[in-house]
Amino acid sequence: MAVTDTETPIHRVLIVGAGFSGLGTALRLQQEGIDDIVILERASEIGGTWRDNTYPGAACDIPSNLYSFSFAQNPAWSRSYAGSNEIMEYIHWLADAYGLRRYIRFNQRVQGLSYDSEEGIWTATTEQGETVRARQAVMAQGPLSNPSYPNIPGLNDFQGRVVHSADWDHDYDFNGKRVAVIGTGASGVQIVPELAKQASKLRVFQRTPCWIMPRLDFRKPEWQKTLFNKVPSAQAAIRKGLFLAHESMATGIIWDTPVNNALERLARAHIRHQVKDRWLRRQVTPEFKLGCKRVLMSSDYYPALQQDNCELITWPIVAINENGIRTAEGIEHQFDCLVFATGFSVPKTGTPFPVYGENGRELGSEWEKGAQAYKSINVAGYPNLFMIFGPNSGPGHNSALVYIEAQIEYIVKSVTTLRSLGVKAMDVREDVQKRHNQHLQKRLARTTWNSGCNSWYLTEDGFNATMYPGFATQYARQMKQVRLEDYRLVSSTGQ
């Protein structure tokens, strides 16, 4: 039974989510002497999206040495592109090496977050009846947390097995089965090559093809692991080189430039090299600019499509029935199992749970036409609330952890500044937030993401609340300093 507010202790920082973002925030706060932290995690284990994505072939499309925190590097990555199991090992190492589990309350799904202006306190309530109060709150639950199913008539009528990439059924035996994979995005191109090794018949249902680059994955030599372990600066140098190489890709992914045309020619060459059938080449070649949707990495997807037991279906799905899938040309495809590689419901117009700020304002309703924040991290009217991977912080060309790390450092500076100044709260000014977003949207209008294709980056009205229109170095630079003049500071006795 939940205790009343007067009986509930007031903590310094509340964090929602125990994935990369939440654990990284707790680690850095701890290093700065802030130890009064509570992390609420809805699951029974840490890991976030990497805990949930355990489908065969799951791996990162960013090099291992770059997909880690600079302040807690792993010298022992076994491959150039780590699989999900190895990434989870790294996350567990973070939690254990830095003693972060003591902050975590597992199996606590947050159902609401509200701010008391008089006390300057955030209160989180969970479905399990827990109440947690804190002076600062961090929403670190991540955008890739809730599986998304397409709106297809008859979805619940299918009598066979239904599996989602983010909720994989490891007890189901795919050997000899007739399997459909719906979706050819990031998870789809990793799942298909693995299922092609097991299924007797594999049909891949594609709505829109994506641009795919070759993935140069290889096992790391033992001498390199030894070197990184003994000389950390060597690993830091490699990480810096990988970062700069990915930064240069921004000119070919974010904007329509000669570099973009060169990358598109490379992607077309990848298709020509791996796909021998001219009609299949045409089917897997996108009609939109490279970068408009997420650019994928794979060297085994196209070969898998050409195996004798595999077929690409590009006719639109009309309905799902008890036996399988009916497509627009009137054919019923019968299956034993449907695999949905359809990603996540990314919140672009709402919040994962109700968030109430000053004077009862509710963030979800304010974001109905598109989410907006200041530097992706603060929202006017919600003092002392911080977000990781908030609006317009999505990377299109570099490691997500570079952006997350910049946000973590901003949060740590904000929390320590509040402590040193002795003020109750900081609330970004409405006019500052408005100017920031007007500038962002002007920049976004010139990017490939806003060039006309439909993607999960955009709302139904075409508003881009997801991506950051620039280099990772630009994003990190704006996060280096907490400009107090951009905020309304609230003392314990008022303004």
TrEMBL record:
Protein name per UniProt: 4-hydroxyacetophenone monooxygenase
Example GO molecular function: NADP binding
InterPro entries (UniProt xref): FAD-bind_Monooxygenase_sf, FAD/NAD-bd_sf, Flavin_mOase, Flavin_mOase-like
The keyword Oxidoreductase is assigned to this record: yes
Entry-linked PANTHER family: FAD_NAD(P)-BINDING DOMAIN-CONTAINING PROTEIN-RELATED, L-ORNITHINE N(5)-MONOOXYGENASE-RELATED
Top-level taxonomic group: Bacteria
Keywords of the record: FAD, Flavoprotein, Monooxygenase, Oxidoreductase
